[in-house]
Amino acid sequence: MASPFQEHLDFVLQNLRWTEWSPLPLARRTPERYRAGIYEVRQAQGDVVYVGQTGDFFTTRMGALGGIFQEVMPFNDPHTAGPCLWALRRSGAEFEARFFPTGSLSEQERRALETVELARLRRAMVWPIANYGGMPMGWVKSSNRRQGRRGGPGSNEGVEKGPPWAPSELRGDPMSLGFGERDWSEWQPLTGGAGVGSPGIYRLAGTTGSVVYLGQAGTIVDRLRQHLQSLSSQEGKYAVLRSQVPLTVSWTVLTGSTSRERLMIEDDLVACAITSDGRVPVAQFLDRGRQGVSESLR
Description:
By secondary structure, the chain is an alpha+beta fold. It folds into two domains: 4-153, no CATH class; 179-297, GIY-YIG endonuclease (3-Layer(aba) Sandwich), CATH 3.40.1440.10. It has nine helices and ten strands. The chain has a four-stranded antiparallel β-sheet with strand order 1-4-2-3. The chain has a four-stranded antiparallel β-sheet with strand order 7-10-8-9, with helices on both faces. Strands 5-6 form a two-stranded antiparallel sheet. A hairpin with a 4-residue loop joins strand 2 (35-43) and strand 3 (48-57).
């Protein structure tokens, strides 16, 4: 019998059970009927420009985008997509939104479904520009409210699309050396000398013989050392990783990649693992650190 998460996963992969698209101003004012889920914003009758998740009411989260209708570019909070949507509106864009309710699923599971939906869109050659820190060409993004820096016109080549690579299928054995149609290193014990001094994606496996976490790094060996040094922590993913010791690691190098490109490829691979196993890698999406990266770069 499928778990509630697996049932929701199947609906996301089939693009089913979403609400109808509503103009964004209307979505911000409709009765608070839907709470907790993933949502999308698209240009009216066009491509999706942002995918997110929330544990709050849909209308509340859409209300956080109210700054896009103001005269000055909003800050990166309360909604990270605000600056990008504001800049797109300067070119005449209008927006619609829709919601996928997830009921009692956990935040970890909602974030997993958000990641799968992003990967599904990229396989369809849709790159939501406002995710991962994207901005239209010629615009610089605002900082968060505490830093107080407003964005506006500026030198920016635009980051409207992602890397050309995307998996042909969102499935595959997460432990294999060809997982996600990439070349992975052999599995080896996670020690202080593990990894290479290159950018890329790494995966950790635990005592159950399955992948428990995937991550990205500008320098893989340094990130793996950080993980080893943090295993004494009782918080977030490290509390789970401690229970999986001894850990093994494997990695794939992405020479010349940017942080944004690695985040997108990481999410594609996480989505492959989720759809293959029908569950979330146990240490994925558990700490505020990764969410902080998501909220600043997505």
